[in-house]
Write a structure and sequence with these properties.
Largest sheet: 6 strands, antiparallel
Distance between the termini: 47 Å
Number of strands: 16
Structural class: mainly beta
Radius of gyration: 20 Å
Order of helices and strands: EHEEHEHEEEEEEHEEEEEEH
Helix content: 10-25%
Length: about 290
């Protein structure tokens, strides 16, 4: 069995990679092989200290038995994309503002040895496959853990969302979010969508700033196919983005097709706090 653990830091969160160095030393001192593959800024000399050896992603793909992601939820999403959403377990060490996907807080860093030894729970997360159809042809495809966003760029756009061909909503507005349960605490929630426990299997559809009072969020069973049509764009600009990736420009009458993916994300949960405790503390109740 491989003993390689890959540390995936966000150097703009982990300044000077101080936490990364501590994690590297803890793991190395306990007999694990460690590689450091930054998710962002690997070519930024001001962000990466000279005493840190950086390993290219191509050298660790398919060789590591675990990835430890040091940053926020966005860093985990980017790491999942680097891994092409493989089944390799990911442990998130939270340096972000929310940290719903990152189960370990920095003050408990020593617990990475528990994870490395296999003493953890797996949290399997639903993912979505996304295709952009133009003139009946697929011009872009992707896989998302969090959400797909269709959004205008400074102008209202006409959006029609359907479930298995039946219209759910049609409105003019800023756009729409189609999220997984994992993504329900992100942009979807900000758009008025419900909070859904992350290991559920649902597709959540939420309009963004709709110019009609009746446009509300829908929660669908996972077996459905959702299509979102972008209309009346013409000289206006709009884009589609999966998990916060660089947007793809939309053309008039493009169709975005969203289905449950065969892939799942494998996040490590160390049992410190439940999703409900996190939701209560981070969203519903703020202590001073």
């Amino acid at each position: 069995m491989s003993k390689l653990i890959v540390l995936c830091p966000n150097p703009y969160r982990d300044c000077g990679l101080e936490l990364t160095k501590k994690a590297r030393d803890i793991l190395s001192d306990n007999g694990y092989d460690v590689a450091v593959c930054p998710v962002f800024g690997s070519d930024d000399s001001s962000a990466i200290p000279k005493d840190i050896e950086i390993t290219p992603w191509t050298e660790v793909t398919g060789k590591a038995f675990m990835f430890m992601v040091i940053g926020g939820d966005g860093t985990i999403l980017h790491t999942a994309r680097y891994l092409n959403h493989s089944d390799t377990p990911m442990l998130g060490i939270n340096l972000g503002t929310k940290g719903f996907m990152a189960s370990l807080e920095p003050e408990y860093l020593d617990m990475i040895l528990e994870a490395a030894a296999g003493n953890y729970l797996e949290s399997r997360r639903m993912m979505i496959d996304v295709k952009l159809m133009r003139g009946g042809k697929v011009v872009y495809s992707d896989c998302g853990l969090n959400d797909v966003v269709i959004h205008g760029m400074g102008d209202c756009i006409k959006i029609t969302a359907c479930c298995d061909g039946d219209r759910i909503m049609s409105f003019s507005g800023d756009g729409i979010v189609v999220a997984t349960p994992t993504g329900s605490t992100g942009y979807s929630m900000s758009a008025g969508g419900p909070i859904v426990e992350p290991e559920a299997r649902n597709i959540i559809i939420s309009p963004i700033c709709a110019h009609v009072m009746g446009a509300k969020s829908f929660v669908l069973a996972p077996q459905h196919t959702v299509t979102v049509g972008a209309e009346k764009i013409h000289d206006r600009r709009a884009y589609v983005s999966v998990d916060g990736s660089d947007g793809i420009d939309l053309a008039n009458n493009d169709i975005v097709v969203i289905k449950q993916s065969d892939k799942t994300a494998n996040l490590i949960h160390l049992g410190q706090k439940s999703f409900y405790d996190l939701t209560f503390e981070k969203l519903l109740y703020k202590t001073r």
